[in-house]
Amino acid sequence: MAAAARLAARGRPLSQPNPAVGCILVREGSVVGRGWTREGGRPHAEAVALDQAGAASRGATAYVTLEPCAHQSERGPACADLLAAAGLARVVVGVEDPDPRTAGAGIARLRSAGIAAALIHSPEAEASLIGYLTRARHGRPHVTLKLATSLDGCIATGKGESQWITGDAARAHVHSRRAMSDAILVGGGTWRKDQPQLDVRLPGLADRSPQRVVLTRGVAPDRAKVINAPAQIARLDAQYLYVEAGTDVAASFIEQDLVDRLELYRAPILIGGGWPALGDIGLASLAEAHGRWQCVERRQLGSDSYEAYSRTR
């Protein structure tokens, strides 16, 4: 299942409006088929894996990160029916689909066809689907807030100079994170001051540049969407929102508890008297700051450090 979850990452975020799902078919100890959701949401991961496996799928076990869909669509047949018709022996599901058209029905349909179907509640599968699940549970995209700071927590000098705090390796990593998002947001002040491109500048990944979103009450910038308040991210057609914001916008997203993942890039420099990464986030006491964030990833990027924290709710 962990391997299927990693496979699903290949479909993110191009699978929109569908979730990025991974599927692996195993027969007699060997992988006979692999698939992930393709661009635009079709074909589904199960259909790709079955097509690759062909006749070898009969009697195999399918490991699929999300419950196979049970509803009919003009774009293709239900995956539960495809798996049943292929003569699989067993289907292992990582996450039940929150879509009411499928929730539980996909597994039930497989069992009624005589296939052993098991739901195992896989953490790896859930992590790979977190954008889809956040949209279903909270009615908004999964939000990652990126901050690049000095050791003393500054994002710019006192005069506003910010390019560049981190080095080449860290900036390339940021572009890889952009490529995993379907929308990227900055504040109006950042947009007017820096005129950021907000694209993906990595070889072979330029087509994965996310939709640009600006948080402002001003005029809509060229080829960018505008929202007027953080809560309006619910209106965005996105599962994964990447926020590269200044002091005030970053603080407002945290204050309104809209940040699900915090990605912190820290350069081995001291600025002193610079612009802080965050403004007031509305804490009434120091005790309220504890227990909110859990470190889930840490690595070195050249001379810079990278840490990712998940919001604990």
UniProtKB/TrEMBL annotation:
Residues 1-118 form the CMP/dCMP-type deaminase domain. GO terms for biological process: riboflavin biosynthetic process. Zn(2+) binds at residues 44, 69, 79. The active site is at residue 46. Binds 1 zinc ion. It holds the Pfam family RibD_C. One of its GO terms (molecular function) is metal ion binding. Converts 2,5-diamino-6-(ribosylamino)-4(3h)-pyrimidinone 5'-phosphate into 5-amino-6-(ribosylamino)-2,4(1h,3h)-pyrimidinedione 5'-phosphate. NCBIfam families: eubact_ribD (TIGR00326). This is Riboflavin biosynthesis protein RibD. It comes from Erythrobacter mangrovi.
